[in-house]
C-alpha cells in the first residue's frame, strides 16, 4: 500500500474517531436535542434530489438514533442494567 | 390503520402496584418495543409510557408508574404515583383507568394499596400477577370472590409468559366503553388501621392461605440472618467470589491474550511497515486487547452477583448489613444503591431515589463512587497480575486475597467517609430498613444467561465504542509530531502525548507515577478501564518489539517499581476517574456543589493515599 494511501486511511480513521468519541462523551440530553434539530432540518429540505437523500438520512439514521437516545434517558434503559439486589426492598416510614 | 381503529377513541390507563410485583414486566409484555422513557418534569423520577392495539384495534396508551406501597407517600416516587392517579400532577393527564398489579404471593400488601385506590373512586382492574407461581406453591384464593368483595374486575396475569396478559387485554376491551376520564378526587386515603382491618377481612373471606414454609428454608434463614454466623457466611461468600475471579479466569484470559498476540503477529507480517500498521498494531490492538483480556473476570464476578440476587440471598445480606450501615449513620436502605455501585456508580446513584431522607440520600450518593465498580476491575487485575505473585497463602490464592483487600478498602473507606459526613454536614436521624425477604430459589439459568449476556454486550460495546475511538486518538497524540532528527529516545517522548505526560508527571511524581501513567490517567477520565488500554498503547509505542500487544502485564512489571504499582492501586481505590458519574450526581442533586465536593474529596483522598502508600513502600524497600 503506498504511503499516501496509508496516510489518507489513517487520517480518516483519526477524524472519525475524534467525531465519534466527542459524540459518545456528550451528555445524553445534548445528543438528544442535537438529533432533534438535525431531524427537523432534514425534514425541511424540499428540493430534489437533496430531499430524497435527506429523507433517507432521516428515516434510516436520525430518527432511529433519536428513538434510542430517548429510551436511553431513563433509568430502566441504563446500559448498566437494573440495580442488582433491587428485589424485595421495602421503604420504611420516613419523612414525606 | 383501518377506519374501525380510527373510530375508536384511544384509552389511557396507568399501571400501579408494589415495587417488584412484575408491573414493568407486564408493561413490557403489553407494549413490546413501543415505549418512551423520560423523566417527569423537574424531578428525576422516570416516566415510562407505551402503547398497543387491542383486538378491537383500539389504541391503548399505558403509563408505568413507580412502585408504591400505599398512597401515603414517603418518597418522591410514591408522591408522583399518587399525584398522577389523582390527576394532580401538572402536565400529566389523569388516566381513565388504573390497572392495579397485585402480586398473588404477597396479596396482603397489595390489598391495602387496592383499597386505597378504590376509595379514591378510580375505575380499576386488578391484575393478579405471578398467579402461576402462587398456584405452583400452593397459595389458595378465590378470585371470583375477591372480585365480588372489591367490586372491580380481577384477572390473572403471568407477565413473563407470552400469553400471560390475554385476560387483561380482554378485560380492558370490555371496560373501554364504560371507563371514562375520572373526576379529580380530593378524597384522601382512609385511616391506615381501617384499611388493614378491611384487607384482613377480605383475605379471610376469599380464603387466602399462604402455604407453610419449608422447614429446611426456615433453618437456612436462621443461619443466614444470624448476626454473627450470617456475617461470617457473607464474608466467606464474598471471599470465595474474589478467589474465583482470579483462579477460574486464568485459562480464558491466557487464551484471549494468545489470540491478540497471534493477530498482532499476523498484521505485522502482512502489512508493510508504516503508519497503518502502527495504528492497527500499536494503537488499536495493543490498547483494545489490553482491556478485552479482562472479560472472563467480569463474567465470573457478575455470574456470582446475578446468582446471589436470583437466589434471594442479596436482600438477606441487606438485612444483615443494616446494623453496620446504621453504625456509621447511613440508612439501611443505602445498601441496595451501594451494592449497585459495584457494577457502576451511575445506577447506584440513581437507585438512591428510594431513600426518603434527603441527607441520607446525599450521604449515599457521596460515597457511591468508593464502591469498586466493574470498570476498576481491569486496572486492579492488570496491576495484581503484574506485581503480585500467583502463589498460595494457605488454602488461598494471594492474588485473590489482594483483590479482596482492594474491594474491602473501598467499602471501609466509604463507611469512614459516611461516618464523617453524617456527623458534620449531613446530620440526620436514623431511619430503619424494612425488607420483604423473598423465598429462596435456584437461580434461573435463562435469567443468568440473559444477565451475563447483557454484561458482555455492555463491556464489548464500550470496547468497540469509546475505548476504540479514544485509542485511535491516543495513538495519534502518541505518534505525532515525529521525533526531531538525531533524537535518541523512543518517538513517543517527543509526541503530543509525551509532552502532556511529562507536564503532568511533575504533579504526579511525588506519588511515584511516571509520564506514561500520567498520560493514561487523562483518557481514563472517560471510563476507568480506558486507562489500561491507554497504557497498552503508550507502552506499545514506547517499545521496539512489535509483539507487545496483549502482554502489558510483564512489560509494566519490568519497568515500574512495586511502590509505583501499589501507589496506583491506592489511587484507583479513591480516584473519581469517570466524568459520567459526576454529571449524574449533578443531575440527581440538581446542584454543582455535590459533584464538585465529590471530585475534590476523592482526588484529595486518592492523592493522599497514593502518597502514603508510595512513601511507605519505598521505606520498606519496594523501590
List the helices and strands and how they pair.
The complex is a heterodimer of chains A (96) and B (623).
Chain A lengths: L2 H23 L2 H17 L5 H22 L17 E2 L6
Chain B lengths: L2 H5 L3 E7 L5 H9 L3 E5 L6 E8 L5 E6 L11 H11 L10 E7 L3 H13 L4 E6 L1 H7 L5 H8 L3 E3 L9 H11 L15 H14 L9 H10 L4 H19 L2 H21 L4 H18 L2 H17 L2 H14 L7 H6 L4 H7 L6 H10 L9 H11 L4 E2 L2 E2 H26 L10 E2 L9 H35 L16 H13 L6 H7 L8 H13 L9 H8 L2 H13 L4 H11 L3 H27 L4
Parallel strand pairs in B: 1-4, 1-5, 5-6, 6-7
Antiparallel strand pairs in B: 2-3, 3-4, 8-9
Helix pairs in contact in B: 4-8, 10-13, 10-19, 11-12, 12-20, 12-23, 13-20, 16-26, 17-19, 18-19, 18-24, 18-25, 19-25, 20-23, 21-22, 22-23, 25-27, 26-27
Task: Give a structural overview.
The complex is a heterodimer of chains A (96) and B (623). Chain A has 96 residues and is mostly helical. In chain A, 65% of the residues lie in helices and 2% in strands. In chain A, helix 2 runs antiparallel to helix 3 (50-71). Chain A is flat, with a radius of gyration of 21 Å. Mean pLDDT of chain A is 70; it is low at 71-96. Chain B has helices at residues 3-7, 23-31, 76-86, 107-119, 131-137, 143-150, 166-176, 192-205, 215-224, 229-247, 250-270, 275-292, 295-311, 314-327, 335-340, 345-351, 358-367, 377-387, 398-423, 445-479, 496-508, 515-521, 530-542, 552-559, 562-574, 579-589, 593-619, and strands spanning 11-17, 35-39, 46-53, 59-64, 97-103, 124-129, 154-156, 392-393, 396-397, 434-435. Chain B has 623 residues and is an alpha/beta fold. Chain B is 58% helix and 8% strand. The chains are: A mainly alpha (96), B alpha/beta (623). Strand 1 (89-90) of chain A pairs antiparallel with strand 10 of chain B, so a sheet runs across the interface.
Amino acid at each position: 500500500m503506498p504511503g499516501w494511501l496509508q496516510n489518507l486511511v489513517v487520517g480518516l480513521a483519526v477524524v472519525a474517531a475524534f467525531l465519534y468519541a466527542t459524540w459518545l462523551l456528550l451528555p445524553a440530553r445534548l445528543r438528544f436535542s442535537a438529533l432533534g434539530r438535525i431531524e427537523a432540518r432534514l425534514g425541511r429540505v424540499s428540493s430534489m434530489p437533496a430531499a430524497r437523500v435527506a429523507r433517507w438520512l432521516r428515516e434510516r439514521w436520525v430518527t432511529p438514533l433519536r428513538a434510542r437516545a430517548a429510551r436511553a434517558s431513563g433509568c430502566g434503559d441504563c446500559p448498566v442494567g437494573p440495580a442488582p439486589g433491587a428485589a424485595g426492598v421495602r421503604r420504611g416510614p420516613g419523612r414525606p | 390503520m383501518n377506519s374501525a381503529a380510527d373510530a375508536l377513541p384511544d384509552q389511557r390507563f396507568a399501571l400501579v402496584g408494589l415495587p417488584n410485583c412484575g408491573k414493568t414486566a407486564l408493561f413490557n409484555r403489553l407494549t413490546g418495543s413501543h415505549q418512551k422513557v423520560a423523566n417527569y418534569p423537574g424531578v428525576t423520577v422516570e416516566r415510562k409510557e407505551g402503547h398497543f392495539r387491542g383486538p378491537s384495534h383500539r389504541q391503548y396508551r399505558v403509563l408505568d408508574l413507580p412502585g408504591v406501597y400505599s398512597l401515603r407517600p414517603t418518597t418522591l416516587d410514591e408522591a408522583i404515583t399518587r399525584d398522577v392517579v389523582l390527576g394532580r400532577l401538572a402536565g400529566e393527564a389523569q388516566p381513565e383507568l388504573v390497572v392495579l398489579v397485585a402480586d398473588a404471593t404477597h396479596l396482603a400488601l397489595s390489598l391495602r394499596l387496592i383499597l386505597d385506590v378504590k376509595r379514591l373512586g378510580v375505575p380499576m382492574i386488578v391484575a393478579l400477577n405471578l398467579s402461576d407461581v402462587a398456584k405452583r406453591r400452593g397459595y389458595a384464593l378465590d378470585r371470583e370472590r375477591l372480585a365480588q368483595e372489591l367490586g372491580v374486575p380481577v384477572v390473572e396475569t403471568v407477565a413473563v409468559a407470552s400469553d400471560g396478559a390475554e385476560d387483561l387485554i380482554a378485560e380492558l376491551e370490555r371496560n373501554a366503553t364504560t371507563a371514562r376520564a375520572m373526576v379529580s378526587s380530593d378524597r384522601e386515603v382512609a385511616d391506615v388501621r381501617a384499611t388493614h382491618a378491611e384487607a384482613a377481612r377480605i383475605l379471610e373471606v376469599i380464603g387466602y392461605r399462604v402455604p407453610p414454609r419449608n422447614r429446611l428454608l426456615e433453618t437456612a434463614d436462621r443461619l443466614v440472618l444470624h448476626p454473627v454466623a450470617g456475617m461470617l457466611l457473607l464474608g466467606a461468600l464474598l471471599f470465595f467470589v474474589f478467589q474465583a475471579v482470579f483462579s477460574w479466569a486464568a485459562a480464558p484470559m491466557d487464551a484471549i491474550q494468545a489470540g491478540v498476540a497471534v493477530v498482532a503477529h499476523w498484521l505485522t507480517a502482512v502489512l508493510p511497515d508504516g503508519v497503518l500498521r502502527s495504528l492497527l498494531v500499536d494503537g488499536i490492538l495493543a490498547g483494545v486487547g489490553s482491556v478485552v483480556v479482562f472479560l472472563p473476570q467480569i463474567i465470573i464476578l457478575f455470574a456470582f452477583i446475578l446468582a446471589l440476587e436470583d437466589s434471594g440471598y442479596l436482600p438477606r445480606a441487606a438485612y444483615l448489613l443494616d446494623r453496620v450501615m446504621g453504625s456509621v449513620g447511613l440508612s439501611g436502605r443505602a445498601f441496595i444503591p451501594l451494592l449497585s455501585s459495584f457494577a457502576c456508580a451511575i445506577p447506584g446513584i440513581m437507585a438512591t431515589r428510594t431513600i426518603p431522607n434527603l441527607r441520607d440520600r446525599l450521604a449515599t450518593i457521596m460515597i457511591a463512587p468508593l464502591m469498586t465498580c466493574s470498570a476498576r476491575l481491569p486496572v486492579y487485575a492488570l496491576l495484581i497480575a503484574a506485581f503480585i505473585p500467583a502463589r498460595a497463602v494457605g488454602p488461598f490464592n494471594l492474588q485473590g486475597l489482594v483483590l479482596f483487600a482492594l474491594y474491602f478498602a473501598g467499602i471501609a473507606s466509604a463507611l469512614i467517609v459516611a461516618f464523617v459526613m453524617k456527623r458534620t454536614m449531613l446530620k440526620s436521624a436514623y431511619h430503619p430498613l424494612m425488607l420483604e425477604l423473598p423465598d429462596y430459589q435456584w437461580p434461573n439459568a435463562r435469567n443468568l444467561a440473559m444477565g451475563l449476556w447483557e454484561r458482555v454486550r455492555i463491556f464489548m460495546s464500550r470496547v468497540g465504542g469509546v475505548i476504540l475511538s479514544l485509542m485511535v486518538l491516543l495513538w495519534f497524540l502518541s505518534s505525532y509530531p515525529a521525533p526531531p532528527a538525531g533524537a535518541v529516545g523512543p518517538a513517543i517522548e517527543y509526541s503530543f502525548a509525551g509532552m502532556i505526560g511529562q507536564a503532568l508527571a511533575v504533579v504526579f511524581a511525588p506519588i511515584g507515577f511516571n509520564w506514561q501513567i500520567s498520560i493514561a490517567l487523562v483518557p481514563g477520565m472517560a471510563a476507568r478501564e480506558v486507562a489500561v488500554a491507554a497504557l497498552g498503547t503508550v507502552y506499545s509505542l514506547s517499545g521496539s518489539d512489535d509483539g507487545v500487544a496483549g502482554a502489558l502485564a510483564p512489560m509494566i512489571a519490568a519497568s515500574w517499581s512495586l511502590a509505583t504499582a501499589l501507589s496506583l492501586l491506592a489511587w484507583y481505590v479513591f480516584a473519581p476517574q469517570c466524568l459520567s458519574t459526576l454529571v449524574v450526581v449533578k443531575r440527581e442533586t440538581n446542584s454543582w456543589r455535590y459533584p464538585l465536593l465529590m471530585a475534590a474529596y476523592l482526588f484529595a483522598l486518592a492523592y493522599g493515599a497514593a502518597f502514603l502508600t508510595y512513601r511507605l513502600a519505598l521505606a520498606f524497600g519496594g523501590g
